[in-house]
Write a structure and sequence with these properties.
Blueprint: H1 9-14, E1 21-25, E2 37-42, E3 45-50, H2 53-56, H3 61-74, E4 83-88, H4 89-94, H5 97-118, E5 120-121, E6 124-129, H6 137-140, H7 146-149, E7 153-156, H8 165-182, H9 184-189, H10 194-209, H11 211-221, E8 232-237, E9 239-241, H12 254-259, E10 295-297, H13 300-307, E11 315-316, H14 318-373, H15 378-398, H16 403-437, H17 451-461, H18 469-477, H19 496-513, H20 525-552, E12 558-559, E13 573-575, E14 579-580, H21 585-609, H22 616-640, E15 642-644, H23 653-661, H24 667-676, E16 681-682, E17 685-686, H25 696-704, H26 706-716, H27 726-746, H28 753-798, H29 814-821, H30 826-838, E18 841-842, E19 845-846, H31 854-868, E20 877-885, E21 890-897, E22 900-903, E23 911-917, E24 924-930, E25 935-940, H32 945-951, E26 956-957, E27 963-973, E28 976-986, H33 990-996
Parallel strand pairs: 4-6, 6-8
Antiparallel strand pairs: 1-2, 2-3, 5-11, 7-8, 9-10, 12-14, 13-15, 16-17, 18-19, 20-23, 20-28, 21-22, 21-24, 24-25, 26-27, 27-28
Length: 1016
C-alpha cells in the first residue's frame, strides 16, 4: 500500500475489517512516516504499508529497491498479490496539472521498478481517500446506515483490463454518476435542511468535476508496463466522517418515510472478473447510530469482496515467465542431463584410469621379463622400454585419480631401465664436455648454441633452471650425446631401429617426465658452480645472446630464397633454408643494435655479481660479434641449401641441367644475392660480403658436361632392369662424384673457408637433387623384386608354420627352410643385390635408400646363416654347444640330439658339441634317472624336435648370455612323490637366441624393403 504521507493508509488498513494488526516496523521508536514500511497481518494476508516518502521523494529510489529486494528474497514465487495507490482527493485539486503529472510519473516509475524486480503483474487498486471533502458527499450519505457504508463506492475493471485504462474508467465513471443522480431523491427524502439539500443535489456534479483530474492521473500512473500488460483493477472512493448527529424529526409522516426506497445502488463494471460481485447496498438507510468513533465509509467490502477474490489474479511477467520456463527446463532437463553426463564422465574416467593402470602393469611386467631373459639385447630391451614409455605417457596425460602413485612407480622403473642404456652415458658425456671447458680444451661452436646451451641444458636436467624442452632436445641431439650409450664404442652410429627407439625415449623424457617432476637426475653441482666462477663471462654472454635473439625473432618475417630469383627462374632452382629478416642490415639498424646496448647493461651487472667485472663497451663488442657470426652462418646456410627444382623424374634431369647451366641460369644471381647479404655494417665496421664470383660459370660448365652421361644412361636403361645392371649406375654416379671434386678445385681460392664450404655444399646439393630420382626408380624395382621373390613366398609358406609361429603344429620342412635361408638361397640372392646397391654412394650419401627395417632383416639373415650353415654351403649344418648340470635326487642324465647321446656322469663338467647335418636325424630326447632308479623321458622326434624340446625346457637367461633349460618330472623317492629336474645350459650365441629370443619366432619380413619417402 503506497501513497503520500497523510493519505489515510493506516486508517484504511485499520478499518479494513480483516483484523489487521501492525507486527513489524523498521524502527519502532521512530515516527510512522520516518519508517520505511510497516507490516500488517490478519486473516491469512500480509499488507505492507510503505512510508509516503518512498513514493513522493524522488531520491528514495534506493530505499524502494531495497524494500522490493527484501520482499523478493523472502517470497520467490509471486512475491506480491496486489498494490494499493492511496491518493487524497483534495491533493488533486490543489496542485497544478504539471505537479499532478510529475506525481503520476513518479508513481508509474515505482510501479515499473516493482514489476521488474519482483517479476509479477498484480492488480492495481486506486483508492481516492478523504472523498468526504467533496461538496455534498457528507450530506448525500449522512443518513446511510453501516450496511451501506461497507459497500464499494467506485468501479471495478474486467481482468485482464483493456489496453486503454482511461477509456474504461471514463465509461464506468459515467455509469456511476448516472446511478448517483438516480438516487438523489432518496437522499433528499432523508434530509430536511435546505443547505444540506442543495449540496446533496449538487454532489453528482461535484463528483463529475473530479473526473478530468482522475483520468489525467490514471493516464500516466496506470499506463501499461514495459511488457505491454495493463494492471489497473479498481478505482474507488473512501471517506472518514466524524460521529454523526441524529437528524431532527422529519417533516413527513411515518407512513411517508416507510414508503421511501430502502437502498442506494452503486454499480460496478458489468464485465467484472469471475468472483467479483456487483455491490448492492440495502435499501432504506436505518437510523444513524450514535457512536463516538469516526465513520469509515466504503472500505470493508472493498477488502472483503474485491481484494480477497482478486488474490489469484497475480501472475508472472513475460520475462519472469520465460525465466521460470528456462529454470524449469534446466531443473527437469538440463541439470539431469548434466548430472548424467558428469556421472558418465566419472564412470568413464574411472574406467579409463583402471585401464591405464592395467596398461602400465603389463609393460612393467614385460620389461622385467625382458631384463631377466635378454639383458644384452639392446633392441628388444629398448622395445620393452618404449612400450612402457608409451603407456606411461598416456597415463600421465590422463590426470585421473589414483594414477599418481602408479605413474610414479612406472616412471621410476622406466628411468631405472633407461639409465644404463642412454641416460648415464649421455650425462657422463655432458659432464666430460663441461669439465673440459675449465681447461679451455673444447672450443665453443659458432652459431650461438655452444657451451652456454650445454651448461643450461645440464642445469635444466638437474632442476636448477626452468626446463625448455626445445633447448634440451637440441643440445642432447648435438654431437649425438643422447646416443652415446647405444652407439658402437669404436665409432660410427647405431642401427636405425635402435636410434629411432632411443629418439622416442628422448621426447618422452623431455616433454613429459621432466615437466612432471618424474625424471630426477643428479648432476655435478660443484662443477656447475666452478664453471660459473671460471668461465662464467663467456657462458653468460652466450646465454644473454641466445635470449636476446629468441625475443627479437618473432618480431620479424622470413626471407624466402625465392626472393633472390626472378619469377621465371623459380622452376629451375630452389633452396631448402629460409632466413629471418632479423639477420639484415635494416633489422640491425632498427632493433638489434639497440637491444644489444640495453642487454649489455644487465649483463655487466650479472658478471659483477660473479666477481667477473667487465666494462660495458667490451660486453657490447662481444654481443655484436656473436650476431655477426650468426648472420654469416645463416646466409651461408642458404647457399648450402641449393637444390634443382621440379626434378620429379630422371627423364627431366637433362632438361633441368640445360636450364641450370644455360645463359639464363639462376645460379649466378642466386649465389650473388646470398653473398651480398653477407655484407653487414656493424659499428663502423663492415663484414665481408660479396666476393669475386667468376668461378660460378666454370662450375656450371662442369655440371653441364653431365648432360650427355645422363642421356646415355637413360637410353641404355630404357629396356633393362636397373637392379641387375649395377655397373652402369656405378659409372653414372662416378661422373657426378667427379664433377663435385672438380667444383672443389674451381672454388679452392674462395675465401674465407666457411664461404667456400657453403658453396661446395650448395653445388653438391644441386648435383644430388639431379640424381635423386634414380633412388626412387631403383628402389621401386628393388621393392618389386623383394615382394615377389622374398616376402610373398615367406608369407605364404613359412611365416605361419613352426618355428616362425611358435605355437603352430605345422612345421616348415628343413629342406624348404634351407632353400630359403642358405647363403645361395632365395633370401640371400635378393639381399646380395641390395648390398651391392648400398655400396654405391653419390656425394657421400647412399645412392639407394632402403627402409628402416632393412638393418634388422640383414642382421637376422646373417645370424640364421651363421647358425644353420657353414661357409657358403647350401646344405644344413647346425652346430651348438651345451653343458649338463647336476641336480638333487638325480642319479643320471642322458641327452640325445640327432644321432649323438651324452651322459652326465661320463664327463660331469664337460661341454658337448652338437652337429645336426643334412639328412638328419634331427630328433631330441632327455632321459632322467631318479635316485630310486626310475627313468623319466622327454622326447620329440620331428625335424624340429631339437628346437621344440629346448623350448619346452622353460629357457631362462643365465650368466654370460648362456641359456638355462629345465625339465621337471615327478618320481617316487623314499615312498614319496617328488619333483626332480633335468637342466642343460646352452652356450651363448645364435642357438640361445633361436630358442628363447626372436631369431626365429620373432622373424618378420617387411612387405616393403624401401623407404616410402625415397627420392623426395
Amino acid at each position: 500500500m503506497i501513497g503520500p504521507a497523510g493519505a489515510g493508509k493506516t486508517t484504511l488498513l485499520t478499518n479494513a475489517g480483516l483484523g489487521l494488526d501492525p507486527i513489524i516496523t523498521t524502527d519502532a521508536t521512530a515516527k510512522a512516516e520516518s519508517n520505511a514500511f510497516t507490516l500488517w497481518l490478519g486473516e491469512g494476508a500480509v499488507f505492507i504499508e510503505v512510508a509516503g516518502r518512498l513514493l513522493s521523494d524522488g531520491d528514495a529510489q534506493h530505499d524502494w529497491r531495497t524494500l522490493l529486494w527484501l520482499i523478493n528474497r523472502e517470497r520467490r514465487y509471486l512475491a506480491l498479490r496486489g498494490v494499493f495507490i492511496v491518493k487524497p482527493l483534495a491533493e488533486q485539486f490543489r496542485r497544478t496539472p504539471t505537479e499532478n503529472a510529475a506525481d503520476a510519473t513518479l508513481t508509474r516509475d515505482r510501479l515499473q521498478v516493482m514489476t521488474n524486480l519482483t517479476g509479477t503483474v498484480v492488480p492495481t487498486y486506486v483508492v481516492i481517500s478523504k472523498a468526504d471533502l467533496l461538496g455534498g458527499f457528507k450530506e448525500f450519505f449522512a443518513a446511510s446506515d453501516a450496511n451501506v457504508r461497507e459497500q464499494v463506492l467506485g468501479l471495478t475493471m474486467p481482468w485482464p483490463p483493456e489496453r486503454d485504462p482511461v477509456h474504461g474508467v471514463t465509461v464506468e465513471y459515467e455509469r456511476l454518476l448516472d446511478r448517483l443522480r438516480d438516487r438523489r431523491l432518496l437522499a433528499l427524502g432523508a434530509s430536511n435542511v435546505e443547505p444540506a439539500q442543495r449540496k446533496l443535489i449538487q454532489f453528482p456534479a461535484q463528483l463529475r468535476a473530479a473526473l478530468p483530474y482522475l483520468t489525467d492521473y490514471l493516464a500516466i500512473a496506470a499506463r501499461p508496463s514495459q511488457d505491454g500488460q495493463p494492471t489497473l483493477r479498481s478505482v474507488c472512493l473512501t471517506s472518514i466522517l466524524p460521529p454523526p448527529q441524529r437528524p431532527p424529526a422529519p417533516v413527513t409522516s411515518d407512513d411517508a418515510d416507510a414508503a421511501l426506497p430502502k437502498s442506494l445502488f452503486f454499480a460496478v463494471s458489468a464485465a467484472a472478473a469471475p468472483g467479483t460481485v456487483r455491490q448492492a447496498p440495502p435499501a432504506t438507510p436505518a437510523a444513524v447510530p450514535a457512536v463516538d468513533r469516526p465513520l469509515v465509509s466504503f472500505v470493508h467490502e472493498l477488502f472483503a469482496r474485491v481484494v480477497k477474490v482478486d488474490a489469484s489474479l497475480a501472475s508472472m511477467t513475460a520475462a519472469a515467465h520465460r525465466h521460470w520456463r528456462q529454470m524449469r527446463t534446466a531443473c527437469l532437463v538440463v541439470i539431469p542431463l548434466v548430472v548424467a553426463a558428469l556421472v558418465a564422465l566419472n564412470v568413464w574416467t574411472t574406467w579409463r584410469g583402471l585401464n591405464l593402470i592395467d596398461g602400465l602393469c603389463q609393460p612393467q611386467a614385460a620389461l622385467r621379463e625382458n631384463q631377466r631373459s635378454s639383458p644384452s639385447d639392446t633392441t628388444t630391451h629398448l622395445l620393452a622400454i618404449d612400450q612402457l614409455g608409451t603407456a606411461l605417457g598416456a597415463a600421465l596425460a590422463h590426470h585421473g585419480s589414483g594414477l599418481g602413485k602408479a605413474g610414479e612407480a612406472a616412471s621410476e622403473q622406466y628411468v631405472r631401465a633407461l639409465r644404463p642404456l642412454l641416460l648415464d652415458a649421455c650425462l657422463q658425456a655432458m659432464r666430460a664436455e663441461l669439465a673440459s671447458l675449465r681447461h679451455g680444451s673444447t672450443p665453443a661452436p659458432v652459431g650461438g648454441h655452444g657451451d652456454a646451451d650445454l651448461l643450461r641444458a645440464y642445469q635444466m636436467l638437474g632442476g636448477m633452471l626452468d626446463a625448455h624442452p626445445a633447448l634440451i632436445t637440441r643440445t642432447l641431439l648435438d654431437e649425438r650425446r643422447w646416443f652415446r650409450g647405444v652407439d658402437p664404442v669404436g665409432g660410427g652410429t647405431c642401427e636405425f631401429r635402435i636410434e629411432a627407439l632411443a629418439r622416442q625415449q628422448l621426447d618422452l623424457c623431455i616433454t613429459t617426465l621432466l615437466p612432471a617432476g618424474l625424471l630426477r637426475i643428479d648432476i655435478d653441482r660443484p662443477l656447475v658452480d666452478a664453471l660459473h666462477q671460471e668461465i662464467g663471462d663467456r657462458l653468460l654472454v652466450d646465454q644473454a645472446y641466445g635470449e636476446l635473439i629468441q625475443r627479437l625473432t618473432p618480431q620479424f618475417g622470413v626471407v624466402a630464397p625465392a626472393t633472390l630469383l626472378s619469377e621465371p627462374q623459380y622452376s629451375a632452382l630452389g633452396a631448402a633454408t629460409n632466413v629471418s629478416l632479423l639477420y639484415s642490415q635494416e633489422a640491425w639498424d632498427g632493433a638489434v643494435a639497440r637491444a644489444i646496448d640495453k642487454r649489455a647493461g644487465d649483463l655487466v651487472v650479472a658478471l659483477a655479481k660473479l666477481a667477473l667485472p667487465h666494462d660495458r663497451a667490451t660486453v657490447i663488442s662481444r654481443l655484436r660479434q656473436r650476431f655477426v657470426d650468426d648472420h654469416q652462418r645463416r646466409w651461408l646456410a642458404v647457399v648450402a641449401s641449393m637444390r634443382a627444382a621440379q626434378v620429379r623424374d630422371f627423364r627431366d634431369t637433362a632438361g633441368q641441367i640445360d636450364r641450370l647451366c644455360g645463359e639464363d641460369s639462376p645460379v649466378p644471381r642466386f649465389i650473388a644475392g646470398a653473398l651480398t647479404h653477407l655484407r653487414l655494417n656493424v659499428a663502423d665496421t663492415t663484414t665481408r660480403g660479396a666476393t669475386d664470383s667468376t668461378w660460378v660459370r666454370p662450375c656450371l660448365q662442369t655440371i653441364s658436361s653431365l648432360r650427355s652421361d645422363v642421356i646415355d644412361y637413360q637410353q641404355a636403361m630404357a629396356f633393362a632392369k636397373r637392379s641387375t645392371d649395377v655397373e652402369r649406375l656405378r659409372t653414372l654416379i662416378g661422373r657426378f662424384n667427379a664433377v663435385s671434386a672438380r667444383i672443389g678445385e674451381l672454388i679452392a681460392q674462395v675465401e674465407p673457408p666457411a664461404t667456400r664450404t657453403a658453396i661446395q655444399a650448395g653445388f653438391d646439393g644441386l648435383l644430388r637433387s639431379l640424381v635423386a630420382d634414380l633412388d626412387r626408380s631403383h628402389v621401386d624395382e628393388l621393392d618389386r623384386v623383394w615382394s615377389e621373390q622374398v616376402f610373398q613366398p615367406f608369407d605364404a609358406h613359412l611365416a605361419k608354420r613352426f618355428p616362425f609361429a611358435g605355437d603352430a603344429a605345422d612345421e616348415v620342412p628343413l629342406v624348404e627352410f634351407a632353400a630359403f635361408f642358405n647363403p645361395n638361397g632365395t633370401l640371400w640372392t635378393v639381399l646380395a643385390q641390395l648390398e651391392t646397391m648400398r655400396d654405391i654412394t653419390v656425394l657421400g650419401r647412399p645412392a639407394v635408400t632402403l627402409s628402416d627395417d632393412y638393418p634388422r632383416v640383414l642382421r637376422n639373415a646373417q645370424d640364421l646363416r651363421a647358425l644353420f650353415f657353414v661357409g657358403s654351403s647350401p646344405t644344413l649344418h647346425l652346430r651348438f654347444g651345451y653343458r649338463m648340470q647336476q641336480r638333487e635326487h638325480v642319479r643320471d642324465l642322458r641327452v640325445q640330439f640327432g644321432a649323438t647321446t651324452n651322459t652326465l656322469y661320463e664327463r660331469p663338467d664337460a661341454r658337448y658339441l652338437v652337429e645336426l647335418t643334412h639328412g638328419g636325424p634331427y630328433g631330441a630326447r632327455i632321459s632322467l634317472q631318479a635316485v630310486g632308479g626310475e627313468w623319466k623321458h622327454r622326447e620329440d622326434t620331428g625335424e624340429w624336435g631339437f628346437l621344440r624340446l629346448l623350448r619346452a625346457g622353460q629357457p631362462k637367461s643365465g650368466t654370460g648370455g648362456d641359456l638355462v633349460c629345465t625339465w621337471e618330472h615327478e618320481a617316487l623317492i623314499a615312498g614319496k612323490t617328488q619333483n626332480i629336474k633335468a637342466t642343460l645350459v646352452l652356450d651363448a650365441g645364435n642357438m640361445a637366441t633361436a630358442v628363447n629370443g626372436n631369431l626365429l619366432s620373432g622373424l618378420v619380413l617387411p612387405r616393403r624393403i624401401v623407404r616410402l619417402d625415397a627420392g623426395r
